[in-house]
Amino acid sequence: MTLVRESDLLVRFRDDANPLLLRSGSITVLFGRNGAGKTYWLESMAGLHPGTGAEVRYGSLPLWKEGRRGRKARNPDALKAYAYSSQAPEEQLVGRTVEEELLETLKPYSLSSDERRRRMLAALEAVGWEESWLVRSPYRLSGGERRRLALACLLVAPSDWLLLDEPTAGLDAPGQEQLRQILAERAAREGQGVLLISHDTEWALPLADQVLLLAADGGSLRECSPEELLHHPDWWEEAGMAVPAWLKVLEPMLRTGIPISSVWKPSELARQWGRLVREAGESPPESSVVYRMDNASARQERQKGSRSSIAFFDPRALWLSYVLLSVAILAQQSWWGVAAGGAIAAAAIWGGRIPIGRWRGFILSFLVFTLTVSVVAGIGRDAGGQWGFQGEAFLTALHSMARTFIVFLLGLGLAVSITPIRLRRSLESVLGFRGRIAPAFQKFLLTVTLMLRFIPIFLNEWERFNRYAIARGKEAGRKSLGGSVRRLSRTAQPFLLSLFRLGDQAAVALESRGVGRQKYPTLLKLSSWGKRDTALVAVVLLLSLVLWLVRGLGA
Amino acid sequence: MDERLRVNHLSVLTEDERGETTARLDDLSLKLNRGEWLYLVGVNGSGKSTLGRILAGIYEEGAVGSMERGFAGEGAAAYVMQQPDAQLFADTPREEVTFALEWQAVPAEEIPLRVEAALEEAGLLELADSPWAELSGGQRQLAAVVAASACRTPLIVFDEATSMLDEETALRVRTLAKRLHEQGTAVVWLTQRLEELEPDVRVVALSEGKIRFDGSGREFLYGERRDDRARVGTPCEECGLRLPYLAELAFELHRAGRVDWPLPMTPEEWANTMERGFAR
After folding, report:
1. Does residue A356 share a domain with residue A318?
2. Cα distances (angstroms) measured from residue A144 to each of A176, B7, B44, B81
3. Which of B45, B95, B107 sits opposite A421 (nearest CB)?
4. Could you tell me if A316 and A296 lie in one domain?
5. Which positions fall inside the ABC transporter domain (chain A) (predicted)?
6. Nearest C-alpha of chain B: how many angstroms from A218?
7. Containing domain of residue B187, as a range?
8. Which of A356, A331, A326 is nearest to A344 (CA)?
């Protein structure tokens, strides 16, 4: 049993297995193929994904604690044990000055003002800046300078661990060299642990004390030393990656067992050139361990998503059904009618396997909104002119809001299950005339389609920046109103900027596709209206008629 | 008539909120031949993306100077970006390519067949009707290439199109690009992966909005031939890019008198060089 120090990082993937121990003061590099879930894994180490199955501890501090009502909650003290840098950390800058930006990172830590100042100056110095930079505005820095500021933010925190996701991507050669020196110094002199993801093997491998290789399916993790990895090109392939080109070239040399130090020093290797002996050298003693992880299958499930069964109907049939049902539901005057409408909506969503779970938060906020509006509507004077809560008015308001809510649920279900482009095509075929469609309609339809298409991407972006806000703000959950507001503002600002970038890229892509250059693009016909579409509309028509006829009953 | 694509004395100026102008491209001139393959390299902020967009014929605010589109023709050329998600507008590869062809006003009856053929060529036919969530990043990027290049391609610009991909999928995107090139398409390939460069293919390197180098891939890595075995800065390093490990090793071997000019660059050349590393 190895002794775990207070600053080490300990990960137990399954109850029965040996834990992975990452020592503070060492540098660990994670390699893995794209899509294997490297970022997800690193974010799990930072407590940004609940329910990953792995038990993570920073020293004696568990990352997740049993909270109130038995729910798992993040442990703020464990979150403070690391500083996190995402793939494009400069996207997260929110302060108006460099000083504000650094203080933002320091906020969760209770430090004296002297200590804060000392740390800020040290962080600036590490990235090659002087005190005078404190008053600069992050928005007036160049891209490279913003990146440096993000690095300073990482270094300013008094944490045991530095977690970095692809830190060299987008850095120029001097920037990469500077980062290498800083990380090596942080590990060696200050005893910080460094855990980083990289695809840049030339840069990362010489820096690493140990290497983690994530399997292609994200289901297992191999821990080994860089030296062992050099002698095992098969481990790259095992993880679904090609052997890096430079290592492939060196392979004949590596097999002779030349020491790793001369691999990292080309001048050393050149000196031995022509004298190397072609026989298999001794491979280093093996200590590589493979850890099995539970989360792989769950993750794949999550990625797959489900395909709704109502997507097989013609979008026009679905829209017609939606309109019919909505009219009938909105016409209901009694609570019985609302209940019937609710039951039909629930049956449609459940029976059609419509994946609205993704929109849970949104639906909940609409529900809260519904109730709030009703309560507000209930406050007023009664017949006698007395102020107070009027049950009657409240119920009336709730009744109309409830109908709206049901129709909203149905509409949401329709929107998530009809793909935007099919929707557009069906609308075009309704609005088109002789194979053409008026440019104004065309523009409108295209805009709507693209908005719908990008909503899931926006949602992902929002969640991404929200995670980063947790990693930086260190708050455990949405305990206090102030905390929620702070997290919201830390999320919203980078999110909006990211929307602008996305919009810009999408506009460029559309332009390069020639969208808009042709006044009359080709109109494709939808696959024809089938029997099942007629059946669907007939059933819905019948239901709506019944609902319509009974709308006044019991009111 | 000169059918080259020519950029003449082009600057792209950006004005910030204080009214200060900075030049993203600074008085830059470049000629591109029909059917040429051009590697465009430089660090972030060097202006290579801006130049890539301009070569693709995409409107860039603040651009001054002139450009003759030559063989590339009027209107924007095909352009593939780093992030597949921002450039996919449909929900499946088949829909995406269909959407692209619709906007090229391809007759409706031809579209399904052409979509099928294009997806087949990219090896995406099996996944033609899978939603994006079921495709890997590389497969989505392939779909973006197919859609971008669908049916009219005197020129295609790849803006770090492989930087988010693993080597295997990156190779597939590149193979597709090479195929377009063989069919006569000019390819502008923006990259930070220097291992993608080829010894005898043109490289243009940018730094601070200016062209710092325009020559062969080998010269970009190793500079001009020198027999005094001195190690001087290469065009690659002068543009702020890290010299790849193998290039560093080649210099050391040259300095130690183990290899001669031209220094090795391709896997085959390196395999030969390695042979000579062993005692006979």
Report:
1. yes
2. 12, 27, 8, 21
3. B95
4. no
5. 4-242
6. 14
7. 5-196
8. A326
CB contact under 8 A, A449 and B89: yes
Nearest CA in chain B to A177: B242
The complex scores an ipTM of 0.87
Q: Closest-CA residue in chain B for A301? A: B134
Active site residues of A: 166
CATH number of residue B178's parent domain: 3.40.50.300
- Assess if residue A264 is contained within a domain: yes
What is the total count of domains within chain A? 2
From A242, A273, A301, give the residue that closes a domain: A301
The reported pTM is 0.83
Residues of B in contact with A248 (CB under 8 A): 267
Token pair listed for A176: 């990469």
Q: Are A422 and A380 within one domain? A: yes
DSSP state of B223: -
- Residue with token string 């597939």: B172
Domain of residue A200 covers: 9-81+162-167+192-301
Q: Do B76 and A276 touch (CB under 8 A)?
A: no
Structure tokens at B163: 């930087």
In a domain, B203, yes or no: no
Mutate which: B43, B89, B156, B229, vs A, most A CBs within 10 A: B89
Q: Is residue A103 part of a domain?
A: no
CATH of the domain at A268: 3.40.50.300
Instruction: Classify residue A429: in a domain, yes or no.
Output: yes
In A40-131 the beta strands, taken as DSSP E runs, fall at 55-58, 61-62, 64-66, 72-74, 82-85
> CB–CB of B279 and A274 under 8 A?
yes
Query: Does residue B267 form part of some domain?
Result: no
Which of B138, B245, B249 is opposite residue A34, by nearest beta carbon?
Answer: B138
B81 and A505 in contact by Cβ < 8 A?
A: yes
- Number of folded domains in chain B? 1
CA A63 to chain CA centroid, Å, is 19
Q: What is the pLDDT along chain A (555 residues), one digit of tens a residue?
A: 456 678 899 998 876 678 899 999 999 999 998 778 889 999 999 999 887 778 899 988 999 988 777 778 888 899 999 999 998 888 888 888 999 999 999 999 989 999 999 999 999 999 999 999 999 998 888 888 899 999 999 999 999 999 999 999 888 888 899 999 999 999 999 999 999 999 889 999 999 999 999 998 888 899 999 999 998 999 999 998 889 889 999 888 888 778 888 889 988 888 887 777 766 666 666 788 888 886 555 555 445 555 666 667 877 788 888 889 988 988 888 888 888 889 988 888 888 777 777 677 778 878 888 888 888 888 887 777 778 888 888 888 888 888 888 988 888 888 777 777 777 777 777 777 766 777 777 777 778 777 777 877 888 888 889 899 889 988 755 556 677 777 788 888 888 888 888 888 888 888 888 777 776 777 766 566 788 889 989 999 999 998 888 887 765
Q: What is the sign of the dihedral through the CA atoms of B230, B233, B235 and B241? A: positive
Domain identity same for A291 and A369 = no
Distance of CA B117 to CAs B46, B80, B90, B236, Å? 38, 20, 18, 40
- In chain A, which residue's Cα lies nearest the Cα of B238? A173
Rounded-to-integer distance, Cα A144 and Cα A165, Å: 17
